[in-house]
Specification:
Blueprint lengths: L7 H15 L10 E9 L2 E9 L5 E6 L13 H10 L1 E5 L8 E2 L8 H19 L4 E6 L2 H12 L6
Parallel strand pairs: 3-4, 3-6
Antiparallel strand pairs: 1-2, 2-4, 2-5
Helix pairs in contact: 3-4
């Protein structure tokens, strides 16, 4: 006759080991990102949508035009079919645009504060994906001005 494990402690340990073995997932697989993160900075909450291949930890931060446009406005067939295959693309809704929210005064919107928002975004991305992450900026219209202001403020994290 086969002896069944009768000690409750042994049963509990066996169950824990089996659960831990079967519940393991590979969180390090960044090859097909589909994330949304929120950036909170100076009374504003701003979403960033991350899509694409982050396996090399290269991120293209897009800065939309406007002000008043949306970050996902860049996400067309070229971005989806080509750029997202090569790197992760961060579609950022800037302060006062898209799905961003906040409770700030008119003084809470300036080029300087919005450049700080972009730097706060990079800080959160580095925390989430690793300090060894690399970043590029791409801006359209107003986003080009904001990108320049961001780089003039601090270009250490950008290639």
């Amino acid at each position: 006759m086969t002896k069944i494990i009768s000690n409750p402690f042994k049963i509990l340990i066996t169950i824990i080991l089996l659960l831990s073995f079967f519940s393991c997932s590979n969180d390090d697989d960044l090859s097909n990102l589909n994330d949304t993160i929120m950036i909170r900075h100076k009374n504003a909450d701003m979403p960033a949508y991350i899509h694409g291949n982050g396996s090399e930890k290269v991120f293209l931060v897009t800065l939309h035009g406007g002000p008043g446009s949306i970050g996902l406005g860049f996400r067309n067939s070229t971005f989806k079919n080509k750029i997202e295959k090569a790197c992760a693309v961060v579609y950022f809704d800037q302060r006062g645009s898209g799905m961003s929210q906040g409770n700030y005064s008119e003084n809470g919107i300036s080029i300087d504060i919005m450049a700080e928002d972009v730097l706060a975004l990079v800080k959160v991305l580095k925390h989430k994906y690793g300090e060894n992450s690399r970043f590029f900026l791409m801006g359209h219209s107003w986003g080009g001005c904001l990108g320049t202001a961001t780089l003039l403020k601090n270009q250490n994290d950008f290639l």
